[in-house]
Amino acid sequence: MPQCKYKIEDLANGLGCEVVMSGVKTVLIGLKDDVAVWPQEIDVPTSMDENAKLTGVPVMAAGKRMFKIHSKDDAGEYQCTGQGEQGSRSQQANLNIYNAGFRASIAGFLRAVQNAELVILVLTNQGEWHLMGDRYRGAVLSEFTATSGKATTDANGADMTFIYNTPSDRVIELTDAQVEALCTVNGSVNEAEISAVNETGVTATGAILGATFTANDETITKVGFRYKQEGTGAWETVSTANFTPGSAYTKAITGLVTGTDYLYYAFMVVDGRERYSDTYAFTTA
User: Fold this and answer.
1) pTM, two decimal places
2) What is the domain extent for residue 173?
3) Is residue 3 part of a domain?
4) 176 and 214, same structural domain?
């Protein structure tokens, strides 16, 4: 949960030298469950800009990709509207795009997504990428009309509306290379690792637990250890969010019982979920 240490600041009128062209430029769409790694909240946002932004980029699971969807000029729009009662308000992100051409590929796309939870990246003409979807809730196709048109001069294609209920609109930064990577089948995700788990300095009442946590292609938000007397049911936890990925992390534990067998393991939090090392043992002096 981000900490509210930012302050309200002046917002310029958005004119002058800034890009203010309206509309949607590019849309990337994939299945929510095909995302292996999600962008993360900024723990302590210090500006209005950071209060809307996430760090990192989505990483697709092995063998998965996102798909680039073109919207007809002046037919794509991204909106965020407030919903709910005061004190429990949230937002609904709404994307409307029109893909020209009434053909088999658009019929197949609609069949694939009409009942699916989606992840969508929307590039507005102001140059910012907006994220629809998270690891808990995906965007959905709420309405669509695919038509051949009547007269020979009528437009034909698919008009599609996607919605996503979210606490607030989210923005991420993407390079052209990262966009191309998202649209290319991912051969593999180099997952975070726990290695070199060890105990040192064991005394009658304490020990130093150590491990190396390597992020690779993922984002680690917390690391730590759990330990207990062998044969008991309650694990003690020591953890921190302040560590250097790829470097050895150690934690001294005290208050142990003399001449007692202890079990312990290392853990890390990746994309909101805990991952664990094997379980190890030591005996106090």
Assistant:
1) 0.64
2) 24-182
3) no
4) no
